[in-house]
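does this look right to u?? pyridoxal-5'-phosphate version
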Amino acid sequence: MSQTEWIQRGKNVIMHTYNSFPVILKNGDGMYVWDENGKKYLDFVSGIAVNSLGYKHRTYIDQLTKQIEKLTHCSNLYWNMSNIELAELLIENSGFDKVFFCNSGTEAVEAALKLSRKYGKLVHGRECIQIITMKQSFHGRTFGAITATGQEKYHKGLSPMLPGISYAPFNDFAGLKQMVTEKTCAIMLEPIQGEGGIRPVEKEFLQNVRNLCTEKNIILIFDEVQSGIGRTGKLFAYEYYDVQPDVITLAKGLGGGFPIGAMMAVERVAKAFLPGDHASTFGGNPLASTAAKTVLTEIFEQNLLSNVTEQGNYLKERLLQLQEISKEIIDIRGVGLMLGMEMTIQVAPIIQKCMERGLLLISAGSHVIRFVPPLICQKDDIDAAILILQDVLGEE
Ligand SMILES: Cc1ncc(COP(=O)(O)O)c(C=O)c1O
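got this back:
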């Protein structure tokens, strides 16, 4: 059966929520994936900032295989050693005290929103329910997370949204401060807005927000679903800002391709959750936890954080060179292997042409190309990607 026939079968039975490219990916190895017809692609998407270790990673396969043979799922009615070890690894390498495991980014955000309201009501009284997020943010697709997302286009046809969530201008402290009242229980932001166009937060803004939250006992949540787990060259992007949040949300790269999410909090906040307040059947199951444990161990043992910094700097340098010869490129921003290239023109046709030439790229909004390759990316991969991109831009 041809690729086109397979896709038609898919269209017959899968809800049309995605405008997928007409390609079926079949297998991968390192930085590359192959489609059903055997065409090879260099992958600078990594399943939307997920496949931290690339494809067919030997240790990842071995560890997951061993765990499948022992136990894949047991629910949280019982303890399992994999998620205890994973929680310890996350806690030892961050400023948090407790973890809640779930299966995706949106669930990690839901957990953070619920924890914030619990904490607000406990500490400041029943009326303390307001959560402030940022304009242009993206936090996920479940009702709480999509309400928290500060982009109207995602709210279309869904009203009424969850009450008590409002949107502050990003990187504008005065604008944010005037929205804070005694009813505010949390402020949530992405240290680098991902879907919103790879927009890093400004250090001064973040430090001001931290001070305000400390002064008023408001929870500061960083959504690091996209920027976390080594993507920026630090384990967490917040490490660049000398600012410690009270709560963090993680997913995407944490499982390296296996679904897992996590919400971590400092003890003062974590203890607002009591038994029965929140749960997930699959959350932190042994297989998912093994995947995440393997990703973290590889990041540390293979010095992937310094690789991300080195390759990220190189990729940025090469993109800046491209900017010198292409008047359509107006900005290069981001850090590590989470970079964005803003253009004066729509980027969808460029991404399409790059794919035809064997390079996978993704947009972040209509005018930004996003570069989020696996953390194992090397200079040769970057040179190969730039060559294709340069060719395509030359034709614009
Ligand atoms: C910052 C951020 N938060 C939350 C999410 C939602 O994650 P998921 O798609 O795993 O639910 C995303 C996904 O793009 C994200 O970038």
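The first helix runs from residue 3 to 13. idk if thats expected tbh
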